[in-house]
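Weekly puzzle thread! Below is a chain. First person to post its structure in token form gets bragging rights.
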Amino acid sequence: MAVRHMARIEYQYCPCCAAALAAGHIDGRTRRYCTNCGFVRYENPLPVVVAVAVKDGRFVLIRRGIPPKKGYWGCPSGFVECGETPEEACLRELEEEAGVRGEIRRLLRVVRLEDTELYGDMLVVTYLVEVVEGDPTPGEEADAAGYFNPGEIPSYLRHVFADVIGELRPGA
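Winning reply:
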């Protein structure tokens, strides 16, 4: 009943009454809707959290062991699950993917990101987290984890850390 287009599911039938969905201009956008029961298919971004985790001026990074971005270094991250806050999800993902526990220090940014490889439209919430316990150990979705000094961060990730690196410099 659904056709998959890249990372997006295009519903053909109403999940409430099974009637065929039509397309029309609703709330300023073209959306699929049901002419029978009035259901409107709103497509919302997936909520994702990122932990920019720091201890003693070093950052925790994991090397992804699964898609998307398999083989690339990055911050522990993942989806917010039903029933948890973004902060809870951030700390859970940090522990699951890097084996360390932390405390959130502050919100760094909220941005929209489109992942064309797998997940589609995402709302990415990034937190600065202080590591309070443990040494980086890769979880099930990572094949490596460790601490990185600012100069050791792969060039493709430096933009993620730019504002935080300035805060970590002595005298800053």
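Puzzle host: Confirmed. Bonus trivia for everyone else. DSSP finds two helices and twelve strands in the chain.
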